[in-house]
């Protein structure tokens, strides 16, 4: 057994021990995860590493030629692609008129080879799935016959969620996980974004399964007004650390990698694409509020009621909190939080990228590394600057607020 498999076997054993499922389901999950690692993930990772090494060599050669020719734009473009590859970031989905011809040619080869690896990855995983789901269905039947109904239900939900997740995932296509959370592939990233903010019902499943979870999320109030108290509303009152631990738990539950989105991924998902320049040393603080014309709803400020722009601090909010700033003439039907997916999604199919609750992302606010970053405004949003797609809000990672929630992303492998 090689080093990769030994390391993965150790990880799988830890996952099985940490996730409180029936021993039969844990055993099947462990067997499947190991098979996926041996036949799918590790071969794919090895292939990607080889492809990246080959591409970097080609980029270096092209860069040397561009330097000899004195073409600075070409050199800079090539260096940027080298940073993308070494930083394990995706290449742009499409080239534009500024892309040098030499780089277009190299990217074309890379994309073709990458697509082949992706298809091989999908085919290898698809080949494993039928026998695994058959074993899960057999276990579900056995547990049902043994009157272990809760465990049988757990197997059924896991099996159904797994079936949708393993389908081929292209940009814009949707899937659903074992908690019923919907995810979509966001172009120019390596992750699937949950299309909605993490709900109370999602967080409740985590809190019921893990001991010691802080219960502030259950009773959050603003000036005596309860919020986030319904299953389909986003959970609030969770810290950055709480959100990170939820993602880790969900990953263990499904044998996947879940995490908070990075600040850059969130910018891409909200519609800023790669308009924000990120040279070495740039921090979210430096980027906050710099794009002065982009709003999550795609229109101008202030948002209009008829556009169903999102859940912001409008008339209903003002009625509950008359002394606080508000958006005059804007009505969204909710004084505080609203059910997820109540308003129009953006072009990528993502809901509430503006309003409802602030969303924790993975990054530190600045070089001091004392605060983490929140994006997207909330149900009290009414200030033009804070409603900009590029606005960031710093808070200590331990802070739990009445308007602070999060959404997950799942890493594609």
Could you name the key traits of this structure?
single chain; 413 residues; alpha+beta; 5-stranded antiparallel β-sheet; 11 helices; 45% helix
Briefly characterize the structure.
The chain is of the alpha+beta class and 413 residues long. It has helices spanning 3-18, 23-69, 72-86, 101-145, 149-165, 200-209, 240-254, 263-270, 284-287, 315-320, 384-387; strands spanning 174-176, 182-185, 191-194, 221-222, 225-226, 258-259, 358-364, 372-375, 392-395, 404-405, 409-411.
Q: Gyration radius, to the nearest Å? A: 23 Å
| Helix amount | 40-55%
Q: What's the main sheet like?
A: 5 strands, antiparallel
Low-pLDDT stretches are: 6-20, 164-172
Number of beta strands: 11
Which percent range describes the beta-strand content?
Answer: 5-15%
Instruction: Report the principal-axis shape.
Output: flat
User: In what order do the strands lie side by side in the largest sheet?
Assistant: 1-2-3-11-6
User: Which class of secondary structure composition applies to the elements?
Assistant: alpha+beta
Distance between the termini: 21 Å
What are the secondary-structure elements, in order, as H or E?
A: HHHHHEEEHEEHEHHHEEHEEE
How large is the count of helical segments?
11
């Amino acid at each position: 057994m090689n080093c990769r498999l030994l390391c993965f076997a150790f990880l799988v054993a830890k996952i099985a021990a940490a996730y409180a499922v029936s021993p039969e389901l844990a055993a099947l999950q462990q067997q499947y995860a190991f098979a996926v690692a041996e036949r799918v993930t590790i071969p794919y990772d090895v292939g990607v590493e080889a492809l990246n090494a080959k591409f970097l060599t080609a980029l270096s050669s092209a860069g040397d030629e561009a330097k000899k020719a004195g073409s600075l734009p070409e050199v800079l473009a090539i260096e940027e692609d080298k940073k993308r590859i070494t930083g394990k970031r995706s290449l742009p989905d499409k080239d534009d008129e500024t892309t040098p011809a030499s780089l277009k040619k190299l990217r074309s080869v890379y994309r073709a080879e990458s697509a082949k690896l992706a298809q091989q990855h999908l085919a290898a995983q698809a080949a494993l799935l039928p026998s695994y789901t058959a074993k899960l269905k057999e276990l579900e039947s056995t547990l049902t016959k043994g009157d272990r109904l809760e465990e049988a239900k757990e197997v059924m939900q896991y099996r159904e969620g797994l079936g949708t997740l393993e389908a081929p995932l292209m940009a814009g296509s949707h899937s659903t996980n074992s908690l019923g959370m919907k995810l979509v592939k966001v172009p120019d990233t390596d992750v699937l974004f949950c299309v909605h903010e993490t709900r109370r019902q999602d967080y409740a499943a985590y809190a019921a399964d893990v001991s010691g979870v802080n219960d502030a999320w259950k009773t959050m109030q603003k000036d005596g007004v309860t919020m986030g108290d319904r299953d389909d509303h986003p959970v609030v009152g969770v810290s950055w650390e709480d959100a990170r631990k939820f993602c880790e738990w969900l990953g263990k539950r499904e044998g996947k990698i879940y995490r908070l989105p990075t600040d850059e991924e969130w910018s891409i998902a909200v519609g800023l694409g790669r308009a924000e320049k990120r040279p070495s040393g740039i921090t979210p603080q430096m980027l906050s509020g710099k794009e002065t014309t982009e709003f999550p709803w795609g229109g101008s400020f202030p948002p209009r009621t008829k556009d169903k722009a999102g859940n912001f601090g409008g008339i209903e909010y003002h009625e509950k909190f008359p002394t606080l700033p508000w958006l005059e003439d804007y009505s969204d039907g909710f004084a505080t939080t609203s059910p997820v997916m109540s308003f129009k999604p953006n072009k990528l199919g993502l809901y509430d990228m503006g309003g409802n609750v602030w969303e924790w992302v993975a990054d530190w606010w600045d070089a001091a590394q004392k605060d983490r970053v929140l994006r997207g405004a909330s149900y009290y949003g009414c200030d033009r600057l804070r409603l900009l797609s590029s606005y960031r809000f710093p808070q200590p990672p331990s802070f739990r607020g009445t308007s602070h929630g999060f959404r997950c992303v799942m890493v594609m492998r």
